[in-house]
Design goal:
The structure is a single chain. Helices cover about 35% and strands about 20% of the residues. The chain has about 575 residues and is α/β, with parallel strands linked by helices. The strands form four sheets. An eleven-stranded mixed β-sheet has the order 14-13-23-22-21-15-20-19-16-18-17. It has an eight-stranded mixed β-sheet with strand order 5-4-3-2-1-10-11-12, with helices on both faces. Strands 6-7-9-8 form a four-stranded antiparallel β-sheet, covered by helices on one side.
């Protein structure tokens, strides 16, 4: 399940003319029955809301006063998230004849008094912000809005914003919808909110909420995944005849198999993927049998060669979605590791059912932890291992039950074709059509199993740490002769070898104009940058002025040196 929380505005969204109809309340009840939670996010004062909405206890939390007040209906506890109203401001506004009301923190007025409100704030030298809501004018301390209030509610519930679908209709809903994984505008919403929303319902007000909930209960909004491009995670660049096309994965859907021989680049592929997931605040947990991920990125590592990892400690950390975890099994005997893994997996499954995180589980050496003999009936784990990355040298030795949820196969190194074929044999499926040859270093055959197309040759996006290492190699290291750039000139009289980018820049500064322009007109610079330096951005820059073959040599010389210096001097 991707979405475990529905967060909704009240007036204009859940309610029409201040009231919520029976059909909408019943849809909210069905949402709770599905195992999900509800959060109400409103600009109203809490007391006013409770007077008009008798079903407030359906909600796990209520964010009131436009993000200033957090309320727990089950305990009746209130938590003020900022300082209270500024009394001199209230007095001055009333003196000026501005109709004004106040709550625990909010100061509320209405249009057309917004100009007087803002002028008074300025005169008093206050750090306050004004927010609009379909004619209402709300004043709160700077930085307080529905988004900050929602984040506080999610923190109390130990739920990530990546597992929230939010619904709204007005100006003050922008902040909280932008915090949600999926932002929904009901049909009666303002045009600007509709433009920024991922989904716009066909129905208005409560009927629009019911429409969204029905789809949520039907397929967890999977039919809308293609619209949520702001959350895509880059996998790499597809290499084709038409150039480079970026390839992405949809977070929290299906599973991934990364397979290939030892030393083929599996670890680099995993590192790059996890780094980008972490950058977007998707939580991951790595099961590490061999200690290969020790001190990985900013993750917390539990377990050493001398101390077995503690499952209870792991679960305490994973309860908070901001914690990434590496579960190191080195301190556990080899024969006991599958049992330790099964114990942790059962606990993670329970946590995911409640909170939908950790968003990704990475199982290294999957052929040891989930061998061919493993079946769900023999453990407490479910039939599906959703949102899991299985890493293995031997896909044919991994349990078919574990491979069944796999939607993306990433085959690296030699015999990539045979890797995909082995995967298909385990599941009794016909393998896709695959061309001859193995992917070059840093690339992989990527097969989207559910798509009706052959595997793609993809240049995998490296991790930042890997990118920095490569940058230094190309800047000051020594490339092999076959990958070096040779300045020969039109008649082949020269044989000046550039064995890295700094030597390339030095030669460019001193080589004669004829030789410099000869290679420009042949497209040699962009070709070398792309094929041997593996820097497609540098190649694109070079291509831009290679299309100007009549440019003065002095200008070309300066551009080439500037490009290399700008991108690689720091690496040196």
């Amino acid at each position: 399940m991707r979405y475990v929380v529905v967060a909704t505005d009240y007036d204009g969204t859940l309610a029409s003319n201040g009231r919520v109809d029976h059909a909408t309340v019943e849809a909210l009840r069905r949402t709770i029955a599905s195992g999900r939670k509800l959060i109400l996010v409103t600009g109203r004062k809490l007391d006013d809301l409770l007077k008009v909405f008798p079903n407030a206890d359906l909600f796990a939390r209520i964010v009131a006063e436009n993000g200033a007040l957090l309320y727990n209906p089950s305990t009746k506890e209130e938590q003020l998230l900022c300082e209270g109203p500024h009394q001199p401001l209230l007095s001055r506004l009333r003196e000026r004849g501005v109709p004004v009301d106040s709550g625990k923190a909010i100061v509320a007025s209405s249009e057309p008094h917004e100009t007087t409100v803002m002028e008074t704030i300025k005169e008093l030298g206050l750090e306050l912000q004004v927010t609009f809501n379909k004619g209402a004018v709300m004043v709160l301390p700077s930085g307080i809005n529905k988004g900050t209030g929602l984040n506080c509610a999610l923190e109390e519930l130990s739920i990530s914003r990546h597992n929230v679908v939010g619904l709204g209709d007005a100006e003050n809903d922008h902040a909280f919808l932008s915090s949600c994984e999926c932002a929904v505008a009901v049909a009666n919403a303002l045009p600007t909110l509709k433009e920024r929303a991922d989904i716009v319902t066909k129905a208005d007000h409560g009927a629009g909420v019911v429409e969204l909930i029905e789809q949520l209960l039907a397929d967890d909004l999977q039919s809308y995944d293609s619209k949520l491009t702001r959350h895509r995670v880059l996998l790499g660049q597809a290499l084709g005849y038409t150039g480079y096309d970026e390839v992405y994965i949809i977070p929290q859907r299906g599973s991934i198999l990364i397979a290939g021989p030892s030393g083929s680049g599996k670890s680099s592929a995993v590192s790059g993927l996890l780094e980008r997931l972490s950058r977007q605040n998707y939580q991951y947990c790595v099961i590490d049998p061999e200690g290969d991920y020790d001190q990985f990125l900013d993750a917390i590592t539990i377990g050493t060669v001398d101390h077995p990892p503690d499952v209870d400690q792991a679960m305490t950390l994973l309860e908070k979605p901001e914690h990434d975890l590496v579960f190191n099994l080195l301190g556990i005997k080899l024969e006991d590791r599958p049992i330790a893994f099964a114990t942790l997996l059962a606990r993670i499954t329970s946590l995911r059912a409640r909170t939908a995180h950790p968003h990704w589980l990475v199982v290294d050496e999957a052929h040891h932890l989930l061998p061919s003999s493993w079946t769900p009936a023999q453990s407490t784990t479910p039939a599906e291992l959703g949102s899991t990355v299985l890493v293995t040298v031997h896909p044919e030795s991994v349990s078919p039950a574990a491979l069944q949820p796999v939607e993306i196969v990433i085959a690296v190194g030699k015999s990539a074709r045979q890797t995909i074929e082995s995967f298909c044999r385990v599941l009794g499926e016909t393998p896709p059509q695959i061309g001859d040859g193995d992917p070059p270093s840093g690339s992989a055959l990527v097969w989207f199993r559910l798509a009706e197309r052959p595997p793609l040759l993809v240049e995998l996006a490296p991790a930042e740490a890997e990118r920095k290492r490569h940058s230094r190699k190309y800047a000051v290291g020594e490339l092999p002769p076959e990958n070096s750039f040779y300045f020969t000139g039109p008649e082949g009289k020269l044989h000046l070898r550039a064995y890295n980018l700094l030597s390339f820049a030095n030669i460019v500064e001193g080589v004669d104009d004829e030789t410099l322009l000869f290679h420009l007109r042949r497209g040699d610079y962009s070709r070398w940058f792309r094929d041997f330096v593996k820097d497609k951005d540098l190649a694109k820059e070079a291509e831009a002025f290679e299309k100007q073959p009549d440019a003065p040599a002095k200008e070309i010389r300066a551009k080439l040196v500037e490009m290399v210096s700008r991108r690689y001097t720091a690496a040196a």
